């Protein structure tokens, strides 16, 4: 820091870099509607005494202990490579010319505290703030955290350091550190808790007023914008939004209350009926008493017979207990079937996953095999080239040897010649030969390049050939499938059931015969797709996508019918194409789904678009698929809008589009097919489409075959050209070798000396040795080449095998997907069977328990009767009435008791039903009572809150208006803030001169400087009503003249001095040297912008350290 002479103001000059601007729009928030209220009389404030604003707030001379910004650091942010500020606790000025990058401080503050890019009006996305040429940017902000209101002081200490990192891919991360630099949290929620605790409002346009917002607000003449500004600044808008949310929840509770109240009369009627049945049981008790009396009379005669009756009861119990293992076995078998079905389902899923894993695992092998094949080809080509090269060398060496031998003979038979003439002729010949050699070498280079091009073309054409052969195979498979489908469609012209398979008419015929023969309890329905029709043919694919395998399914009334139907299917249906069977109890009356169905003004449900004559089928689809709760929305975009963007309709969790796509609230699945197969009315249209598809496939096959022939011709042509150029290359190489030898021969001629051929003879021996080495080398190369050809064949086979495996894996996934659908149905059926046998097992055990209870009862009765008889007479006595007579009377009475029980129901069930229904009735009554009491309390609280909200809004308006009047008064202005809470408008009326109080001007009639000054007064008034610990203002004085600027600045300084517990940060391009300073002001001066300068270094003056020490 550098301290300015003659002033207590601290002037800091940070390091900065080139400036980069970004533009963006400003987010708009919609203010929720409030209830109409009476006109507030704020105009009465104009008659209040226009005194000192200090009377409105206590002049606290201590600085803030928490929530203010102590420092900010920017790295690679906007135009700055690195920029650091240490703010004072009260007034801070950032002064700099336009282009110096001072607005980046305000933008960094918003972004660093988690604000969106659109709030700053400086960029459309977070990554736009990263300095050009850099990959990431960082913003670090230190927030004071002292005193009694500190946030988690044990963890953070005296300051909370918030760091945010931005990257070019749009990612962002947070780190919240303690004053010692320890990371406490990396979650965005922790930052929200810190901001809420300190009451820091990053998106409050008054708390942090940037350039564009300030400029737009200064030029805005719309009173509603000012009113929105007021609501956001005072957080009244957030309070209104919270109240609206509570009201929505209240309406939901009210709907629940109405539903419960509607069920009360029906429940009351049910309780009354069951109470009457409970009272009718009293007559049975009288008959039972009479039976007890007859049994006492029967005494000894009955004792003997009762003892005999115990034996068959015990035998029956043993018989039933002997059947228990059978029931256990059935339960175990059904559980095993469930486990087997689930294991099968899981196994299919694992197979599909394994196929995907195998394909993924084979992909690198395929690439490696392909690369290995290319490598082997290159090795073979290189070996061939080496072989040709060695052959040429062998020929050249042999020719050179012959020429040396001829030279020896020539030298031995030669005579003296004119050596000078011969030398000149020899030099001329060498020059000509060298020119020919250069020409031939250039031709050789061109030929090598052409050979490589032809080889690459052959390799490329072979890859295309292999790919086209695979495409041809796919077309042949599709053609066979379409031909089979065309046969099925043509045969279904007379019988629509053949759409579901050629075996389906025979299956339905045998089901009808079995029903006529009485083999079914109820006639099974199916295939279900043939039992329904559409009101709108455009939704055929949507309905098929919704019902899926249920289109083929049959429904049976019970397990008996299911077994009969399964035996018929085994004899009719091909293996793997057996339709699923689902057990569901038949109901002849359609379900009433009016209370639970989805209702939408624009889109129908599946139940609405179907025409179903059989109520059994409609009830079955409601049970199995809930077709009353699934919407049909033709347009994909509208379906996403209804299900995902908006709140989905009540009782609806999914929808289908005309394209067959399935839309959930948070997911979207595209259809695997684009055509309907079963619900289309016109078979001729399907036949025509299939024929067109076949014709298209045949045309594509012909075109592919033509392409294959052309590729094969191109391969042969390129191979022929490759061989021709290789032959040409060999010939050219021979010419080159010959010329090179001739040149060496001419250059080796020496001055005539006595004939000495020993050197040439040694050269012949050397050539003989070279010829032997070359012949050995040729044999080695040929051996290697044969091995390389074998490796090449192995590599080609490996590549083709892996590629074939990938194709086979992809083809094998389709039947597994069909098996997965059938496995789902098998699981459902197995669980139903398990439930059936578990219920039978439970009934069996209950039967044994009842029989044992009867046995014990009889044994006890024998003992009781014997005891009673012994009490009457120790010896057995015969009664006057025969045992048979007494027995018949007892039987008659028991029959009457049994008839009454059949008529009135089981006593225990009647009693239990009565008490349960009565308990349910009173539970509903208590719930209704509690809900009414809760709603009453809620209405009272919300009424109080609404009144308090209006009063709070009125007081804030009065407070802001009074502060506004006092601020205007400091310059001799008069005016007021006129609120219209019903119209949601706020207008400023200002009279520049207090001399004429009769004429009040609105903002449009003021000059630019007067309007700017009035706006500053308005902002200061809102600041007074705002609880944020700091206020930021950017270029507030850009449209003011010198007089208004000085008055506004003095006024803001006065407000800042009176609010020492608040922090103020002002950004301005104006010179602040003439500002009346004091010790609470800290000033930062930005360097002038330099377009050619990367980083601007600054030196700290000596007195800065003293200043910092005194301040710390």
UniProtKB/TrEMBL annotation:
Give me the stretches of Basic and acidic residues compositional bias: 1098-1112
- Which cellular component terms (GO) are annotated to the entry? nucleus; site of double-strand break; Smc5-Smc6 complex
Q: Where is the composition biased (Polar residues)?
A: 8-17
Under Pfam families, the record lists: SMC_N
Tell me the keywords, alphabetical order.
ATP-binding, Chromosome, Coiled coil, DNA damage, DNA recombination, DNA repair, Nucleotide-binding, Nucleus
- Major localization class: nucleus
Q: Name one GO molecular function term.
A: ATP binding
Mind telling me which InterPro entries this protein's record contains?
P-loop_NTPase, RecF/RecN/SMC_N
The protein's location, in the record's own words, is: Chromosome; Nucleus
Q: Which family does it belong to?
A: Belongs to the SMC family. SMC6 subfamily.
UniProt name for this protein: Structural maintenance of chromosomes protein 6
């Amino acid at each position: 820091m550098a301290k300015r002479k003659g002033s207590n103001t601290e002037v800091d000059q940070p390091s900065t870099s080139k400036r980069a601007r970004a533009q963006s729009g400003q987010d708009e928030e919609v203010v929720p509607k409030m209830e109409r209220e009476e006109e507030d009389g704020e105009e009465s404030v104009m008659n209040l005494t226009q005194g000192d604003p200090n009377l409105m707030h206590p002049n606290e001379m201590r600085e803030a202990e928490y929530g203010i910004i102590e420092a900010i650091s920017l790295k690679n942010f906007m135009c700055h490579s690195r920029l650091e500020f240490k703010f004072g606790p009260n007034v801070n000025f950032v002064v700099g010319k336009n282009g110096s990058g001072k607005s980046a401080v305000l933008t960094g503050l918003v972004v660093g505290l988690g604000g969106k890019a659109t709030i700053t009006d400086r960029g459309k996305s977070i990554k736009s703030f990263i300095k050009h040429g850099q990959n990431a940017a960082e913003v670090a902000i230190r927030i004071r955290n002292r005193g009694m209101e500190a946030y988690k002081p044990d963890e953070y200490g005296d300051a909370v350091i918030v760091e945010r990192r931005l990257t070019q891919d749009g990612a962002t991360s947070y780190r919240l550190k303690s004053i010692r630099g320890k990371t406490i949290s990396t979650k965005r929620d922790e930052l929200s808790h810190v901001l809420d605790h300190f009451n820091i409002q990053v998106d409050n346009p008054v708390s942090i007023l940037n350039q564009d917002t300030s400029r737009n607000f200064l030029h805005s003449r719309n009173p509603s914008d000012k009113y929105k500004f007021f609501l956001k600044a005072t957080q009244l808008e957030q309070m209104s939004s919270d109240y609206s949310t509570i009201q929505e929840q209240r309406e939901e509770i009210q709907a629940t209350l109405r539903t419960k109240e509607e069920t009360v009369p029906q429940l009351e009627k049910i309780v009354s009926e069951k109470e009457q049945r409970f009272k009718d049981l009293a007559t049975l008790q009288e008959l039972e008493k009479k039976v007890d009396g007859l049994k006492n009379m029967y005494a000894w005669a009955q004792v003997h017979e009762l003892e005999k009756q115990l034996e068959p009861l015990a035998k029956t119990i043993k018989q039933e207990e002997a059947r228990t293992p059978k029931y256990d076995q059935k339960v175990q078998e059904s559980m095993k079937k469930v486990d087997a079905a689930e294991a099968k389902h899981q196994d299919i899923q694992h197979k599909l996953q394994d196929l995907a894993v195998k394909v993924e695992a084979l992909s690198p092998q395929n690439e490696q095999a392909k690369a290995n094949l290319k490598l082997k080809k290159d090795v073979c080509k290189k070996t061939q080239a080496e072989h040709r090269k060695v052959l040429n060398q062998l020929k050249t060496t042999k020719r050179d040897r012959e020429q040396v031998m001829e030279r020896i003979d020539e030298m031995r038979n030669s005579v003296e010649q004119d050596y000078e003439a011969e030398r000149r002729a020899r030099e001329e010949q060498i020059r000509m030969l060298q020119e020919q050699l250069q020409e031939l070498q250039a031709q050789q280079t061109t030929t090598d390049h052409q050979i490589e091009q032809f080889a690459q073309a052959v390799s490329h054409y072979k890859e295309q050939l292999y790919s086209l052969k695979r495409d041809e195979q796919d077309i042949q498979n599709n053609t066979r499938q379409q031909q089979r489908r065309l046969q099925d469609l043509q045969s279904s012209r007379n019988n629509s059931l053949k759409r579901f398979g050629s075996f389906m008419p025979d299956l339905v015929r045998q089901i009808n015969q079995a029903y006529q023969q009485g083999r079914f309890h109820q006639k099974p329905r199916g295939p279900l797709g043939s039992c329904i029709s559409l009101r709108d043919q455009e939704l055929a694919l949507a309905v098929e996508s919704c019902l899926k395998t249920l289109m083929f399914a049959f429904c049976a009334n019970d397990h008996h019918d299911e077994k009969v139907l399964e035996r018929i299917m085994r004899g009719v249906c091909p293996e793997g194409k057996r339709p699923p069977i689902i057990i569901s109890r038949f109901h002849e009356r359609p379900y009433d789904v009016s209370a639970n169905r989805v209702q939408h003004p624009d889109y129908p449900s599946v139940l609405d678009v179907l025409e179903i004559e059989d109520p059994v089928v409609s009830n079955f689809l409601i049970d199995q698929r809930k077709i009353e709760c699934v919407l049909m929305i033709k347009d994909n975009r509208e379906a996403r809008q209804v299900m995902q963007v908006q709140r989905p309709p009540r009782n609806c969790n999914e929808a289908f589009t005309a394209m067959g796509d399935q839309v959930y609230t948070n997911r979207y699945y595209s259809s695997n097919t684009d055509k309907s197969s079963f619900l289309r009315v016109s078979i001729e249209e399907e036949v025509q489409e299939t024929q067109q598809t076949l014709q298209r496939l045949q045309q594509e096959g012909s075109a592919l075959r033509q392409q294959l022939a052309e590729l094969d011709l191109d391969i042969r042509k390129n191979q022929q050209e490759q061989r021709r150029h290789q032959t040409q290359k060999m010939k050219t190489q021979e010419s080159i070798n010959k010329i090179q030898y001739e040149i060496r021969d001419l250059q080796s001629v020496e001055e005539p000396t006595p004939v000495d051929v020993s050197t040439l003879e040694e050269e012949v021996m050397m050539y003989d040795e070279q010829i032997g080495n070359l012949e050995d080398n040729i044999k080695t190369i040929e051996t290697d080449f044969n091995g390389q050809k074998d490796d090449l064949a192995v590599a080609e086979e490996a590549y083709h095998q892996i590629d074939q495996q990938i194709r086979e894996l992809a083809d094998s996934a389709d039947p597994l997907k069909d098996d997965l659908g059938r496995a789902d149905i098998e699981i459902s059926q197995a669980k139903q069977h398990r439930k059936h046998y578990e219920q039978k097992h439970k009934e069996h055990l209950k039967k044994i328990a009842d029989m044992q209870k009867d046995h014990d009862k009889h044994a006890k009765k024998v003992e009781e009767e014997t005891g009673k008889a012994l009490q009457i007479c120790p010896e057995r006595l015969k009664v006057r009435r025969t045992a048979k007579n007494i027995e018949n009377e007892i039987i008659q009475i028991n029959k009457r008791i049994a008839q009454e029980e059949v008529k009135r129901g089981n006593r225990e069930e009647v009693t239990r039903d009565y008490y349960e229904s009565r308990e349910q009735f009173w539970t509903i009554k208590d719930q209704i009572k509690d809900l009414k009491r809760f709603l009453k309390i809620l209405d009272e609280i919300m009424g109080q809150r609404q009144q308090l909200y209006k009063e709070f809004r009125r007081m804030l308006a009065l407070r802001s208006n009074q502060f506004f009047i006092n601020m205007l008064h400091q310059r001799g202005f008069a005016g007021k803030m006129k609120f219209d809470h019903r119209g949601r408008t706020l207008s400023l009326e200002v009279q520049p001169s207090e001399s004429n109080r009769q004429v009040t001007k609105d903002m449009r009639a003021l000059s630019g400087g007067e309007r700017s000054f009035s706006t500053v007064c308005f902002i200061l008034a809102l600041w007074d009503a705002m609880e944020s610990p700091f206020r930021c203002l950017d270029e507030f004085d850009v449209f003011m003249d010198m007089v208004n600027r000085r008055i506004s600045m003095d006024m803001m300084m006065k407000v800042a001095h009176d609010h020492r517990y608040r922090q103020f940060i002002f950004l301005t391009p104006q010179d602040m040297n003439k500002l009346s300073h004091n010790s609470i002001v800290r000033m930062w001066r930005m360097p002038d912008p330099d377009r050619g300068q990367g980083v601007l270094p600054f030196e700290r003056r000596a007195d800065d350290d003293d200043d910092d020490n005194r301040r710390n």
